[in-house]
Amino acid sequence: MFTSVDDVSARLAETGYLASPAVATTVFLADRLGKPLLVEGPAGVGKTELAKAVAQVAGARLVRLQCYEGVDESRALYEWNHAKQLLRISAGRDESWDATRTDIFSEEFLLPRPLLTAIRGDEPTVLLIDETDKADVEMEGLLLEVLSDFQITVPELGTVTATRRPFVVLTSNAGRELSEALRRRCLFLHIGFPEEELERRIVRLKVPGLGEALTESVVRVVGALRAMDLRKAPSVAETVDWARTLLALGAGTLDEAVVRESLGVILKHQDDIQKAAAKLDLDAL
Amino acid sequence: MTGVAERITGLVGALRAHGVRIGTGESVDAARAVEALGFADRELLREGLAATLLHGAAQRAVFDPVFDLYFPRGVGGPAEGTADREALRDRLARALAADDRALMARLAAEAVDGLGGYGSSPGSDGWSAYQTLERLRPQTLLARVRADVRGRGGGGAAFADRLLDDEIRRRIEEFRRLVGAEARRRVAERRGRDEIARRGVRPTADRVDFLSADRDQLAELRRTVWPLARKLATRLAARRRRAARGTIDLRRTLRSSLSTGGVPMRPVLRRRRPVRPELVLLCDVSGSVSGFSDFTMLLVQALHDQFGKVRVFAFVNRLDEVTGLIDHGRADPDGLGARIRAEATLTGWHGSSDYGMALGEFAERYGDAVGPRTTVFVLGDARTNMNDPNLPAVRDIARRARRLYWLNPEPRARWGTGDSAAPAYAELAEMHECRTARQLGALVSRLLPV
């Protein structure tokens, strides 16, 4: 899919995803080694976006499995269409049982769910398994077969093996510790908060109307906030939101009054706002 | 390219020695990654190896210095070097003002070469990061760098300017790190890479000895409280699920077998009543073990929703309840220890710890805090300063509680030496060695009641 790491960065940048060297290298390796990519990091640093960007670059179809507590086989792999099977049985009343039986367990009555869909297709596919940490431990066991051999066993039909390996991205917020077995099957990528230079480029790309000096100040203040050990450190998404807010407010420079008014955009907890205000020498809120 | 394979296995070996679990499959992947990436760009190689070998973000802190040793930037000292301290300081000030990372790295190499060398005969010489930084004193450049940046008008907007000091401090911190890495590299050239990779690289925070951890390490540990608590909560929930399945209830199995003609077709399992266990913590917060106690208190607080009731008591030679303080301590975990020592009555006539007195006071004043559902943890090194260990009080607590555990941050070999009453206490309470956060995590997930 990619020829070099620079190729990855360049093509991701075309879709509006600015990748750090770590991200570009890992995506390149995931493609080369044919291994799934496990992406961890705080909320709002672009984990899900990465999968979407890769799909766009590769011209691949994006299949997404959103994990939640209680997601199970019938939501993730496949399900038999019972209603349709019943109709089929009552429609073919004169048939012998053997004929009916082989017929109702055929592809026609199978409802593929994301994992099976991703494996069966012939076209290039990016499989995004989002928020893996939200799913139960049992679900991880299910993923192991899919991720290491790219195959799924349907007892009535046999084993479905991928003709073309999908590019798999798993994301996790570290809400729960993923099992060692799952981690070992993946390349690991931690996306942290970006370097100042990269973040400036992101702000410039997403909020082009903001002046250069203001962009610089915004990134510096956010950097300082992240060093403060808050309950929820502002992420890239918050930086961009803040930049948009400042643009909407028509602020020319960053001064005390503007920061005080808009601090709520980047910090989501009242204690954080107070702490940050104290550290930044803002007057009492 | 046999050298490459050896490099990789050496790197993997050093990482394993630091507790990173890497299988053979990952080593093979790492080699394939090297093949795909080539050696043209060292940073890409670093990221590639990290992606294939590591399994968690916390391991990165160990990986980076080890990588620097096995895939060094270069060999030997810098081509041109100067031992002139003032010249170096001038150039460093300019590099810090411009935030020029490449130049800072070059200066670190020159500084170690010029100022960090010690010893002369082969075998006893080396390079010391400490000595380099002590002579160069980069922290004293702050004012100069600030003036330099302001003078250029590079500070930009007036508001962001107030962040400048912190930013410069971070840059200086970065420079110190670079000096440390450079000194390690030079020493490794002299003494062998494997040795330095195992000894010279700081272990991850969860493997640092509580008793010898410095302030930075303790602060780093406190940041791991929440992730660790989440991990432990998962394990506790799994244990609880297993425990809830329970054993066969014979009476109800027989009763239900009547409907199938006396043949027990379906076993009925005994159902456990969902009782949330209660927890009492007795923490020695005197100087020597306070790092350990503070961390454990925060961890238990983070786990509090797993329990019906958590009560925390702190003592030095008198004992006081601090449950409320810890509840409020969530906003500011760094100041917790200081606040406990300021707001609770922990010392009587003198300032050194006295286990006998404190445990006696607990049994007397708060005896009703311990019931048949309570698990009691005592945290401390059991060093009584030659006072009476007051074993009857411990016996009394052990009799009333469901379980009594003692977590001792000292290595087992030192129990019973000097004024330690550990062996005497260990006869009454189940005592465990608990020197690192990793050990604590393992103990907590095993010992905590479900």
UniProtKB/TrEMBL annotation, chain A:
Residues 33-197 form the AAA+ ATPase domain. Pfam families: AAA. GO terms for molecular function: ATP binding; ATP hydrolysis activity. This is MoxR-like ATPase. CDD domains: AAA.
Automatic annotation (TrEMBL), chain B:
This is VWA domain-containing protein. InterPro entries: UCP010256, Uncharacterised_CoxE, vWFA_dom_sf. It holds the Pfam family VWA_CoxE.
